[in-house]
Amino acid sequence: MSMFNHEARQFKFDVLREISALAFEGKLTEESAAAISKKLIPGRKAEFRCCVYKEREILRQRTRLACGKMADETAEYHPRQIVQVIDAACDGCTIRKIQITDNCRKCMAKACMGACNFGAISMGPHRAQIDYAKCKECGACARSCPYNAIVVTERPCSQHCPVDAIRWDENGIAQINEEKCINCGACQAACPFGAIEDISWVVPVISLLKMKTPMFAIIAPAIQGQFEKATLPQIKKSIEMLGFDKVYEVALGADAVAWYEHEELLEKMEAGVPMTTSCCPAFVNLAKIHFPEVYEKNVSTTVSPMMALARKLKKVHPDHGIVFIGPCLAKKQEAMESFTAVDYVLTFEEIAAMLISQRINPEEVEAREEDYPSVFGRNFAQGGGVSKAVIEAAKEKNKDAQFSAVYADGCQECKKQLTLMKFGKFNASLLEGMACQGGCIAGPASIEPPMVIRGRMVKENSANKKTISESVEAFDFSDVAMHRE
Question: What's the pLDDT score for residue 311?
């Protein structure tokens, strides 16, 4: 039974499942990994590409990524560039951005020729034609055509990239500019060919589990509702069954972040400076790379909930490894920062593949609730939840300070609000930025649709009456450094 309607995502998942099974069995070798492509595509008839050999080459590159390697074995290894291009899958995309269709009437006005400043358009025997050696893809011809006979086809990856980090090489294969890329995963989610994927850390995590290395798993709030009817306690217990000593909710760290970030906000307000949240790593990357002045002046220095909880656990259990599990690709990069307390990051897709490889069904596991955070901490997973938690923390502390918050839903809105902040036009105290529209429940590695997740979260959290203050009192962060550096 398929988990995804997107066939490329299903193939990615199948590869992760096979790699996980081999790693758990201790049978993962170069030869066994290479055999996965033929196992998944056993026949000689191609189903999706021009030939079965191309399909297997794409799976071979997917397998390399699943093993933590670059898709292209000739490429230099850049571990911080989480998002990678699978060359063999990318060349199925249309290469020409500007195309003339059969709607062209070869009219007497020749508006397209007049609009082109590069002499790239001439009249052929049946319709206008483009000399692509001269074409600059400006689109002036398309805008001028009275018949709408010239179409502009933007590649989905480039169209959805919020920071213009994608270009093409001489063969029309997508290339990612690592100096611009914020690892948000928007290109990965948008690509209809599954040609852009993330490097996985499944193999080293499974290796450590097999060696009985003491490890904790910390799960993002967005995991709630990802496994159909399985409750959050069942999900936590299922992950423990893989070999983790214990599974903690990152929402505990979210409660602490809201509690301490409120204090930093008050300091900013006294100085007359608006502040942004810092829990979304892609949003922080956006500010750091593309709005450096805002990053230095306005971005909260409070660590993310993931990092707060990891630091707390490392302080109490310095011999334990920490594995974060979430829907986000940029978290893998955050785990490599100099201030990290996280050893590895897995996505929901990857943990699901590990569970299925070990025949663990969360819905069948017996478990009970424990160590649970406030509903405000859990709602960090939804757009607007962070600022609501900070407001709640202020209310619980009986602070008189009044402040307003703006929620930036998705990278484009984040760019708009950061631009306003850069030029002193931002008219609120706090900016909550989320790279994914809808928040973390819409992350690129989520399994279920955001609306489904939202409904399941509301239902399961309805009985949770714990306050943020009760949460931070029960799980004390007072001895944990809550700032980035």
Answer: 97
Write the secondary structure of the chain as one string of H (helix), E (strand) and C (coil).
CCCCCCHHHHHHHHHHHHHHHHHHHCCCCHHHHHCHHHHHCCCCCCCCCCCHHHHHHHHHHHHHHHCCCCCCCCCCCCCCCCEEECHHHHCCCCCCCEEECCCCCCCCCCHHHHHCCCCCEEECCCCEEECCCCCCCCCHHHHHCCCCCEEECCCHHHHHCCCCCEEECCCCCEEECCCCCCCCCHHHHHCCCCCEEECCCHHHHHHHHHCCCCEEEEECHHHCCCCCCCCHHHHHHHHHCCCCCEEEECHHHHHHHHHHHHHHHHHHHHCCCCEECCCCHHHHHHHHHHCHHHHHHCECCECCHHHHHHHHHHHHCCCCEEEEEECCCHHHHHCCCCCCCCCEEEEHHHHHHHHHHCCCCHHHCCCCCCCCCCHHHHHHHCCCHHHHHHHHHHHHCCCCCCCCEEEEECHHHHHHHHHHHHCCCCCCCEEEEECCCCCHHHCCCCCCCHHHHHHHHHHHHCCCCCCHHHHHHHCCCCCCCCECC
pLDDT of residue 440: 96
Low-confidence ranges of the chain (pLDDT < 70): 1-2, 399-401
Model's pTM, two decimal places? 0.92
pLDDT in tens, 247-291: 999 999 999 999 999 999 999 999 999 999 999 999 999 999 999
pLDDT given at position 2: 61
